[in-house]
Input
Amino acid sequence: MSLNNSSNIFLDSVPSNTNRFQVNVINENHESSAAANDDTDPPHYEETSFGDEAQKRLRISFRPGNQECYDNFLQSGDTAKTDASFHAYDSHTKTYYLQTFGHNTMDAVPKIEYYRNTGSVSGPKANRPSLLEIHEQLAKNVVVAPSSADRVANGDGIPGDEQAENKEDDQAGVVKFGWVKGVLVRCMLNIWGVMLFIRLSWIVGEAGIGGAYYLISRSLGPEFGGSIGLIFAFANAVAVAMYVVGFAETVVDLLKESDSMMVDPTNDIRIIGSITVVILLGISVAGMEWEAKAQVILLVILLIAIANFFIGTVIPSNNEKKSRGFFNYQASIFAENFGPRFTKGEGFFSVFAIFFPAATGILAGANISGDLEDPQDAIPRGTMLAIFITTVAYLGVAICVGACVVRDATGNVNDTIISGMNCNGSAACGLGYDFSRCRHEPCQYGLMNNFQVMSMVSGFGPLITAGIFSATLSSALASLVSAPKVFQALCKDNIYKALQFFAKGYGKNNEPLRGYILTFLIAMAFILIAELNTIAPIISNFFLASYALINFSCFHASYAKSPGWRPAYGIYNMWVSLFGAVLCCAVMFVINWWAAVITYVIEFFLYIYVTYKKPEVNWGSSTQALSYVSALDNALELTTVEDHVKNFRPQCIVLTGGPMTRPALLDITHAFTKNSGLCICCEVFVGPRKLCVKEMNSGMGKKQAWLIKNKIKAFYAAVAADCFRDGVRSLLQASGLGRMKPNTLVIGYKKNWRKAPLTEIENYVGIIHDAFDFEIGVVIVRISQGFDISQVLQVQEELERLEQERLALEATIKDNECQEGSGGIRALFKKAGKLNITKTTPKNDGSINTIQSMHVGEFNQKLVEASTQFKKKQEKGTIDVWWLFDDGGLTLLIPYILTLRKKWKDCKLRIYVGGKINRIEEEKIAMASLLSKFRIKFADIHIIGDINIKPNKESWKVFEEMIEPYRLHESCKDLTTAEKLKRETPWKITDAELEAVKEKSYRQVRLNELLQEHSRAANLIVLSLPVARKGSISDLLYMAWLEILTKNLPPVLLVRGNHKNVLTFYS
Output
């Protein structure tokens, strides 16, 4: 059903010199117009501001001769007593009446007594008529027009967005790995890296055998996971340099032995490292399949090298090896090496920093989770088994080398024990060798000095060299693959817009070639450092930060109690994860405090950046889960607290249809709900249930996303129903949660009511009745051009679609313009077919140009401009509030909230209230007192005393012509004919009904005259909505009232609260 208002233009106003409070004498019989008052000089009212002294002093101008009245008001702080002008109830009908505008009516004017607390010392509390009393049918002999239709069609049903066809990716040939090849092999190769063969012996020498166990047990934890961002990707890139430098060190040692140095050790490491990383880049670019095959070969070599080391420990040592510190298994050597002996300023954490990169391999499998067949099974199984195997290997190598090799050795076979020499507990001395001079001068051998100890101990040295090559190259290769994959995943998420360039993949496996180049450049930069002990702590710092975040992520996911977080690790505990995160952070600072500070500054900057940019991603994060839990807890907590009038805020259901189709209606509602109240954009789908539900579900996400994109703080809700009224009734009853339930219905004025089918009119008026039945306030918004721009959107979407097809066709032709023969033509038509282009002839361009050149009037440019009028900052002016009936204060509260917004802050409130001609000044003072107690600023107060006089003949004639097509005129027909017409057309306006509510009809027409006189230049008019008593006012007559009331005016808000207080002056 359309909820739009009719297209009208503002009439030219006639200048008037009459007093703004000019009052005509009221004729109770409404037969003649009143004479004008002789007052000519209108009073000037200063803008009133109510601060801390607002209730003590009210600045307001007054007419001559009324000084005493105002003085009494200022001294007492309360209004003057009213005359005996209301009756508690009618003695015959027991119905409560008030004299409003000098006439008996149930609808009450605003009075301070309605807002007092029970037992107030300032005066008695009065109860305004309830919404039920003024809305429900009275037991009168009045001919009524009952509803005649139960089913209606939604005339403004908004077609859902067509779902795009799903395009399946070509999966043929994509390489996927199992848990052994994809995870276990990778993790073992990374953990058995350069540290095992080149630095483990030195670590044992520094930290001792027991220290090595402590380091290993705390380094190889069970943490694993996916990528955590830039730092992790950068750490993997730097790891490439570390492994390549380790490889280059071994090669340089071999060159030293053969006296084949190229330049010097440092530059040789740089040269060899640069050549090596170029070769590894070529292998990586060749694809994951080649890389995986290379990894398997390298693992075999590595296993043989480790076995060769253990075999070498039991082969009897010769004199040359003994001079270099290797004596096979000796209890004295084991005891001597068990404790730490740090040298050259080294300490536990400095040694830890160098060793820690060995533990980084535990994520080698998780880093390529996208290339695994079953990541959920493969990652935990492969990683945990790799951790177990490599931990045993590290411990075994540490114990064996610590039990076989002394810390310092000279390498001189002649350094044997002289007879009678005191060994002072030295293990080497006890075994016949004197290495005491190593205490005073540097030696080249032993655990502390020789990084190639494992080669010396092994049964066949070249195998260890091959193992070192295997370990370093495999680890470098794995890191060279991991870093671009992690970085590509990060770029695909589009978190950092500037990095989108690196998201592109190539080939069937979507290889990140651009990421490979970036990783290569980073690795080359660190290879030039050419010092393994310098690079390793850098990696440790970044990996510790990564593991800290991974541990905290596990803890946070558990703390959020998300049902989707179901860790399969049997002995997992969230507090262990938190402890691990804290421990990682602490170790970072112990290793190098300034590097840790820099790392966390970078992390904090990235966090702030992402928070500010709010990328459009949805990962189902634990933060999202925790937000949900927090919101749920807060919502439940709200239900334990009773509502209080001080906390009232408009919580609105807005019948926008799709939110993008009636933007102006949503904008004006959002203006008084943003940051203060609930706003739900609602749409009703009418028709066959299956089709409606499909259309509704397909558009839910897009329409909520539109609200978010346009920064509108509102929700979108939709229902499928048999008729529009049933759908709205469901929304009114079921929307919201706990205390966050709508209390106000906002709808657009039905522009086409005179041309619309009867069922639509009954539908429209019916939802207003339903809202009142549910004690929900109603706001009807009318603007001159109407709200619905769905036709404009359809034209724009069609233009965009045709333009996209044109560009796609041009691109296809361009790609194939150089091709010759039938193959090129077939390729052209094949690509064009994929684009769903039915015609590829030049005629398409002509049709597009024809549509693009359509006259702007085809989709009403004025309507487009009107749809954005509430998005703009409003010019300096007024919001005129015609608070004619006391509805609890909603009619006053909404415009007050508007004045708090930046777009409306230049608009001042002018208050118009009905009153009696003999109490103009007293009622003005009373209203000023009430507004001051509410602490609501206003620019002026107008008391209108001539509301109930008859309108002029021209205005009344317009109203009569408006309702003429819908009148029954039964009084002009005989009884039989009249009864027949009533049965056939029960919706028509009867003469009896029109006569019974003639004075109310007069009032609507007269109010429009007053609005034209006083508020033609206002930015916005807020007006009390008349209530149609059920069973007494026909739908068409009520629509005529609304039409004549708001005709030819600026934007109008017709407001009616639920007659419960929404304002209070009590603290």
Notes: The first strand starts at residue 98 and ends at 100. The chain is about 50% helix and 5% strand. Residues 873-1054 form a domain with the Rossmann fold fold (CATH 3.40.50). The two ends are 44 Å apart (CA to CA).
